């Protein structure tokens, strides 16, 4: 059994230590907001926070996540129905088209804003390495600026 803290809740998971965190989140814990994209750590659809850092969960073995604070898109807001400024900016600026990559994008953006509360375009470009097939990158940048109050 592996002990995980996901969105502030303790879970005991019976899975092999080398199982990618992505699959444990989705299959064992039902956190399906974390998406499978490429499985190679390139696209970022599976981005979650591990001790506050944005990571590609398809590349994190379960054993490496034990004892860490894991946050998924489901745990980003306060849980009482209120969205974060970032999530509201995403909606207001109609960032998603197909939406598949967006939970990973939002998690990467949230980590950026935590580390750099007033990011420049260069900061955003450096941090936002997630791939969006629809190409909504300009709207992603605008939503991050709006959430940071730098639009």
Describe the structure.
By secondary structure, the chain is α+β, with helices and mostly antiparallel strands. The protein has two domains: 2-75, Roll (Ubiquitin-like (UB roll)); 85-148, [2Fe-2S]-binding domain (DNA polymerase, domain 1, Orthogonal Bundle), CATH 1.10.150. The protein contains six helices and five strands; from the N terminus they run ββαββαβαααα. It has helices spanning 21-28, 62-65, 85-92, 102-115, 121-127, 137-148; strands spanning 2-6, 9-13, 47-50, 53-56, 69-71. The protein has a five-stranded mixed beta sheet with strand order 2-1-5-3-4, sandwiched between helices. Strand 1 (2-6) and strand 2 (9-13) form a beta hairpin. The radius of gyration is 15 Å and the shape is globular. It starts with a strand and ends with a helix. It holds the Pfam family Fer2. Keywords: 2Fe-2S, Iron, Iron-sulfur, Metal-binding, Oxidoreductase. This is 2Fe-2S iron-sulfur cluster binding domain-containing protein. It comes from Pseudooceanicola pacificus. InterPro entries: 2Fe-2S-bd, 2Fe-2S-bd_dom_sf, 2Fe-2S_ferredoxin-like_sf, 2Fe-2S_ferredoxin-type, 2Fe2S_fd_BS, Beta-grasp_dom_sf, Diverse_Oxidoreductases.
List keywords for this structure.
DNA polymerase, domain 1, 5 strands, globular, oxidoreductase activity, 2Fe-2S
Supply the CATH architecture of the largest domain: Roll
Total number of helices: 6
Report the structural category: alpha+beta
The CATH superfamily of the largest domain is identified as Beta-grasp domain
* Chain-averaged pLDDT: 95
**Total beta-strand segments:** 5
Uncertain segments: none
Helix-residue proportion: 25-40%
Could you tell me the CATH topology label of the largest domain: Ubiquitin-like (UB roll)
Rounded to the nearest angstrom, the distance between the terminal CA atoms is 47 Å
CATH classification, class level of the largest domain: Alpha Beta
The largest pleated sheet is described as: 5 strands, mixed
> Strands of the biggest beta sheet: in what spatial order?
2-1-5-3-4
**Taking Cα atoms only, what radius of gyration do you get, to the nearest Å?**
15 Å
Principal-axis shape: globular
Strand content: 5-15%
Q: What's the order of the H and E elements?
A: EEHEEHEHHHH
The structural domain count equals: 2
């Amino acid at each position: 059994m592996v002990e995980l803290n996901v969105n502030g809740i303790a879970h005991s998971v019976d899975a092999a230590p080398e199982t990618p965190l992505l699959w444990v989140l989705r299959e064992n814990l039902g956190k399906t907001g974390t998406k499978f994209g490429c499985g190679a750590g390139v696209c970022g659809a599976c981005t979650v926070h591990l001790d506050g850092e944005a990571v590609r969960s398809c590349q994190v073995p379960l054993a490496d996540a034990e004892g860490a604070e894991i946050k998924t898109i489901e745990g980003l807001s306060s849980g009482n129905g209120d969205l974060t400024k970032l999530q509201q900016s995403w909606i207001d600026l109609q960032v998603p088209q197909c939406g598949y990559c967006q939970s990973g994008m939002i998690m990467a953006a949230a980590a950026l804003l935590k580390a750099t509360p007033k990011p420049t375009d260069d900061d955003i470009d450096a941090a936002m390495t997630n791939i969006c097939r629809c190409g909504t990158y300009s709207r992603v940048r605008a939503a991050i600026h709006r959430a940071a109050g730098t639009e």
